[in-house]
Amino acid sequence: MVLAVALVVVLAALSGLALVGCGNSGPQADPKTVLSGSATAMQNIKGFHFVYEVHKPGNAPPGSGLQIARITGDVNLDGNMVAAIDVTNNGVPLTLDFVQVGDTQYLKMGQWQKIPVESSPVGKLSLGTGTITILQQVVDAKNLGQEKKGGTACYHITGSVAAEAVKAIAQSVDTSAPFPTDLWVGVDNGYVYEVDVHGPATADEPSGTWRSIILSKHDVLVDIKAPI
């Protein structure tokens, strides 16, 4: 599975953290405890809504070829996903409708058609599971206290993530340096509300590039079916 399957991986990774439950509800809650509790909470949800975005400096030149700018959609725990993909094709903005059911991907280009993963703008990008993988692999984690995301009180956790883990949400990474990372986890429910990964993933991306995944509508199952 591609995007949402990532959820299972991240969850499994997070569950590897020794401390269980969100615990320590104060602003100085242990970050490992927060992440471990989040793994348990996220593992039990039916699905969620997400917005994935690649942020580039305003003065960055337009990229060549097909590049993802934003993906907005819903993903279920079983890996099925429906999304609108905002891309640029040699600098020209386009929006593509996308569905994934099981291991099969569909793209609407005038009409719906099946597409092989290697030809898909999404490819093996794993936003759901990739998010959880990142959570599990945060090192030097620190709790900066409580902030609100989407009106929900969250712990703001910072740290860094190995380049290998970032591949799940960046498709291609050609650097070995770790990526500074910020994430926000609900104080009361343990759900992940946002993950920000800072730094260009490839030499083609300008300095100042960063990626965000914003999650909402946690534990909502969307009826996703093959369009053809």
Query: Could you please say which CATH topology applies here?
Result: outer membrane lipoprotein receptor (LolB), chain A
Number of helices: 4
| Low-confidence region ranges | 1-26
Following the backbone from N to C, one meets helices and strands in this order, namely: HHEEEEEEHEEHEEE
The strands making up the biggest β-sheet line up spatially as 6-5-4-3-2-1-11-10-9-8-7
Q: Which outline best applies?
A: globular
What do the pLDDT scores average to? 84
Please describe the biggest sheet, giving its number of strands, its sense, and whether it closes into a barrel.
11 strands, antiparallel
What is the terminal separation in angstroms? Answer: 19 Å
Structural class call reads alpha+beta
CATH architecture: Clam
Q: Which radius of gyration do the C-alpha atoms yield? A: 17 Å
CATH hierarchy, class: Mainly Beta
- Give the proportion of residues in helices: 10-25%
Number of domains: 1
| Count of beta strands | 11
Q: What amount of the residues lies in strands?
A: 35-45%
Describe this entry's structure for a reader.
- The protein has 228 residues and is α+β, with helices and mostly antiparallel strands.
- It has a single domain, classed as Clam (outer membrane lipoprotein receptor (LolB), chain A).
- Helices cover 18% and strands 41% of the residues.
- The chain contains four helices and eleven strands.
- The chain has helices at 6-15, 31-43, 127-136, 163-170, and strands spanning 47-55, 66-76, 81-89, 92-101, 104-109, 111-115, 139-149, 152-161, 179-186, 192-198, 210-216.
- The chain has an eleven-stranded antiparallel sheet with strand order 6-5-4-3-2-1-11-10-9-8-7.
- Helix 1 packs across helix 2 and helix 3 (127-136) runs antiparallel to helix 4.
- The model is unreliable at 1-26 (pLDDT under 50).
